[in-house]
Amino acid sequence: MKTNKQLALVIDLNVCVGCHACVTSCKEWNTQGSAGPLNDLHAYGENPTGTFFNRVQTYEAGSFPKMETVHFPKSCLHCEDPPCVPVCPTGASYKRAEDGIVLVDYDKCIGCKYCAWACPYGARELDEERQVMTKCTLCVDRIYSETLPESERKPACVLACPTSARIFGDVHDPLSEASIAIKERGGYSLMPEWETRPANQYLPRSIMDTIQAVMDEN
Amino acid sequence: MFKLFSSAPVHDPIGKQKPIDEIKKTTCYMCACRCGIRAHLREGELVYIDGNPDHPLNKGVICAKGSAGIMKQKSPARITQPLLRKAGSDRGEGAFEPISWERVFEILSERLGKIRATDPKKFALFTGRDQMQALTGLFARQFGTPNYAAHGGFCSVNMAAGMIYTIGGSFWEFGGPDLERAKLFIMIGTAEDHHSNPMKIALSKFKRAGGRFISINPVRTGYSAIADEWIPIKPGTDGALFMALMHELIRKEKFDAPFLQRYSNSGQLVCLDTGPEEGLFLYDPDSEQINLDLPHNKYVWDEKTNSARPCFEAGVSPALKGEYIMGPGPHAGKKVAPAFELLRRQVADTTPEWAASITGISAERIRQLANEMAHAAFEQAFELPIQWTDVWGVEHDKVIGRPVAFHAMRGLSAHSNGFQTTRGLAVLMSLLGTIDRPGGFRHKAPYPRQVPPNIKPPSSEADIKPNTPLGKAPLGWPTQPEDLALDNNEQPLRIDKAYSWEHPLAAHGLMHNVITNAVKGDPYTIDTLMIFMANMSWNSTMNTMQVRELLNSKNADGEFKIPFLVVCDAFQSEMVDFADLVLPDTTYLERHDVMSMLDRPISEFEGPVDSVRIPVLPPMGECKPFQEVLVELASRLKLPAFTTADGQRKFTGYTDFITRFETAPDSGIGFLAGWRGKDGEKSLRGEPNANQWQEYADNNCVFQYHMPEEHHYMRNWNRSYLDFAKANAIRQKNDPIMIAVYSDILQKFRLAAQGKRPGRIPPEHLKKRIEKYFDPLPFWYPPLEEEVTDLNTFNLNAITQRPMAMYHSWDSQNAWLRQIHSHNYLFVNTKTATEQGIADGAWIWIESQWGKVKCMARHSEAVDPGTVWTWNAIGKAESAWSLAANADESKKGFLLNHLITEELALGGFTVSNSDPITGQAGWYDVRVKLALADASEPAETWPQVKAFTVPGMPLGKNAKNAGEFE
Prior knowledge:
- The structure holds 2 protein chains of 2 kinds.
- Chain A is α+β, with helices and mostly antiparallel strands.
- Chain A is built from 6 helices and 11 strands.
- In chain A, 19% of the residues lie in helices and 23% in strands.
- Chain B contains 26 helices and 36 strands.
- In chain B, the strands form 11 sheets. A 7-stranded mixed sheet of chain B has the order 5-4-25-24-23-6-7, with helices on one face.
- The longest helix of chain B is centred in the first third of the chain and has 18 residues, at 101-118.
C-alpha cells in the first residue's frame, strides 16, 4: 500500500537504558484515550498480565566478559506492507492512507487473533477484557489533537523517554529528524527477510573505543 | 448495515474522549529524583501524568515509575484510617481497630509528653526518605531526643561521608559529573536507580556528542548496557582499584600538581615525630587561623626558599615530596613531610599487579585505565574564559577544564570498607584536578560545604535534658574524639550507637541497628519508636526474620520490649503489621511538601533550586500528610519552635509553618528560597511571604536561582561565591574549603587509640580496630565479614540492586509496575551455574553462614563469575501490600536480606556488621554458596512469611482490572 506520508518511530539502541518509561507512559496515555482501556488481568494476583502496546526486552549477546546487554523496546512497526492487514476477515485491521499508521478498528474486530499469527514481530495483543486486538496507535489521538500544544503532538513514549531514544517523524520525508537519523546512523529494519518493510527503524549500538594515543602509550 | 462492509473504519481512533479539563503541576515522589510532573484531570479524576516540559530538572521527561503514578494512587494497599492494635493481641497479627485522629493526637501527646518530661531519648524517630530531614530533624531536635536518623546509614552514608570529609561534597543530590563537557565518563558501582532522569538525559547527550563511557560494576544492566566498555570487578574491591590508579598516576607524575598545591592540603606539613603531634599538621601561631573549628594556619615547605612557610603565603611553591626538618621557630627541629609525600608512600606498593589479584581486572587494563584518565584530564584539557578571584585575592581570567568525570554510588558504599574506598575515589578525582571544574565533578548547592560541615551531634548527657531541645543537632560530623556521642560512662548516647567508638563518623545514623539494640536494651531500652515510610521489618534491615521476632519479644512481665511502636505510611507495608499505632499518610498527589535548601534540594550545578508539591487530589479517607502530623504534635507538645513567646500555638499547619518558619528570629532563611520578602521580590534570604506557596504553584512548583558565571566553578576557593554562600546562609563561613587529601581528623582518632593523644580514648577492646581503620590516607582492606567467613565454602559474593522500574519495596502494589517485575531470580554467571549443574530457571538454595533462602536461578553472561545478584525489595511477605496470597512476589520472589547478619564477632567482641568508621551497613559483603533444591520440595521460595489486611483498605483484592477510566 503506497502512502505519501509514513509516520514512524526510530529507536536508538545506543542510548536506551531499559528504564521502561515508554512502556508505562504508553499504557497510561492509551488507557485513558480512545485506544483504551488497556486491560490488566490478575492485577494484584498471581501471574499478573495485561495489555501493553510497547514492551522492552533485555537481551544478552556474547559471553562473559565480551558480552553486550541490549535493551530492546518493541511496538508495532507500522509496516509499509503489513501482513496483519490482508489476513483480517472483517477488515478491522487497516493502514491509513494519509499517514501510514496501522490501526485496529475495535468496532469491527472479532478477536480471532489471525493478525497476531501473521505479524512476525509479535506486536499485536488480545485485550482480554474487551476481546479485541490491540497495538500501538502511534498515539494518533495525540498527533491529531486540536487541544494539545503543538510541541506535544507526538506519541507519549517519545515525550517521556529520558534518553531521547525515540524519534518520531515521517520516514518518507528525507528532511525529517527521523530520516536524517536513519541515514546518519545506519538505521535498520527488523527481520527484513519477512518483506514487511517495517516503517519503524532501529539505530545500532556504536562503541567509542580507547583512543590510539592511549593504546600506544601502554 | 452496509457501513460494516465498507472499508472506512467505524471506531474513530481520534475523537470521542472528553477533553482534559485541568492540568495541575507538582513534583513526583516515585523516587528521590523529584522530577517536575503534570497531573491531567478529567472531571476531577486523575487520568494521566507526564513530565513538565518547563521544569529544569527533567525538562519534560518521565520514567516508568513516574508514568505509573496513577496506579500508586489506586493502590489497594492504601491505608485510610488511623489504627490502634487491639488490646491483648500480638504484634504482627493484624488485629487493629480504627480510631479518630483526635484520639491519635491524645495518645501521642500524652505518651510523648511524658517521655519528654522524664527521659527524652526514650523516643526514637526514624524515617525512610532522607529528603525531608529538615522537618523531621527539627522535630527530633526540638523534642530533645538524639535518637533520630533517616535511612542513609543503611543505604549509602559511606558515599556521602567519604567524599564530604574529603572534598566538601558528594554525588547524587550533592553534586555530580559535568557530562556536558566531559570526554570520558566512568561510572562505578552504580545501580539502576541512581541518579535517575537527569543522569539519563545527560548520559544520552554525552554519548551522542562522542563521549566515551566506561562502567565498572560486577553486573552489566541498566546504564551499563550502553557503556562503551564494561569492566567487571569483584564486589568490595573498588578501593584496591583506586589505590592502583593513584599508584600509576603518581608513578608517572600524571597528576595536577598546581591544583593540589593551591587547593588541597597536599603541600601542608605533617609532623613525623612520635608523640601527640604525630601525623597531624603543625600550626603556625603567627598566621591567622581564619576558621576556629578547622584552622588554616598550617605550613608548607616552600621550594623556592627551602624553608617552611605559612601555607597561604603569596608566592609559595609547596613541595609535594620529601622529608624536612623545621627551621628556627616554634617547631624547630621537628621532622615533617608534605601530606602528599605520605600519599606517595601509601600507594608505593599498591601496584596494578597487586590490585589485579584482588579485583579480577588485569594489571594491563588498570594501567591503561590510568592512562586514559590522565589523557582525558591533561591532553584534552580546555579552558573557559571566565574571570574569577580566588579566596586569597588572586585574579584568574580562566577556568581550566579536565574532562574526565565520575559517578559512583552504593556499589562502593554498602561495604564495610566503603568509607576508605570512597575517600580513595575522592582523592583520585583530586589528583586528576577535576573538583568543581568544567567537564569534571561539580557541586550542587548547598554544597560545597566545609570539610566536614560544622555541625556536631550531642556529645554528652548534658546535651539531653527533659523538656528542652537538644543542645546540638541530632546528626552531625565529628572531627575529634571529644565530639563523640558518649555518656558519662563512655557508653553510647544514641540507641543506634552512632557516634560511639564503634562507629565514630556515623553521619547518617544506623537505622538498621535500632530494633535489635532496643530489644536487647543495649545501650538502653526505649519507650516509643516512631517509623515513617521505612520498611524496617522487611527490606530495610539485615537479618529480616530475626528482626520480625524481636519486634514481638516481651519482658517477663508480658510487656513488649519496645513498648510502643508507631508506623506512618501511605501503604500497608510489612512494617505496618507490627505497629501498635498506624498513621495513614497521604500519597504525594494529596499533599504539600518541600524539597528544601535546608535539607537536600534539587539544585543544578549553576545554582540553588528548590521545589514543592501541592495537592492535586483531596486526601483519601482519613489520610493526613505526615508533615501535618508532626506540626500538630509539635504544637501540642509546645515545642519551642512551634510555640509563641506567650505559650500559644505558632503555626496553623504545615503550609503556614513552611512560610513563616525562620532558622533564627528574623534570619530571613526559611524552608523555601524562592519569592521571599514582603512582595516576593527576594531570593534565598528575605522576610516570610504569605503568598509564597502560590508563587511556587504559579511557577511549575520550582524556584531556580541562576548564579552569575563567575560563581559556577572552583567554588571551594572562589571568593565571591564563598561570600555569597555565607551571606545567604548556604554555608556558615566563607573560608576556603581545602580538599583533604590527607585527613588529620581520622588521624586524631588513630592517635587516641594509640594512647598518644590527651583526651578521650577508646575502650580497650576497640583500640586496635580504630588504630587500623582510621588511616588518614585511603587504603583498601577486605570486607570485615571475610575475617569470619570460610571463603572456600562460601565462594560467591552476593549483592543486590534496584531496577529502574521500581523504587524500594513500594512499587509491587502498583498494578502496572509489577507486570514488569513481579518476582526476582538470582542471576548467576552461566559458567558458574552449569559447573554446579544449575539449569536456567532451576530452584536453588542460596546459603550464607547466617541463613538460607530458596529461589530460582537465572543464567546470565552479564555478571562476574564470582558474583551472584538479584533485585532488592521485590520479594514480599505473603499478602503484604494487599497482593493476593499466591502473588508472585511472595511465592516466587525472595529477599536476600535473610542471609545477611546484623552483627559480627570480630577480634573477640561483637559489633555491628558495618563500616568501622561510619557504621554503614555492610550488606554487600555477604558471601554465599549455591545448591540445587531437591525435586521433592515445593516450587516456591523460602522462607514464606505472612502479612495481613488491615481495616480501612478500600480497594481490596477485588480490584480485577486496574486502570479503567470510563
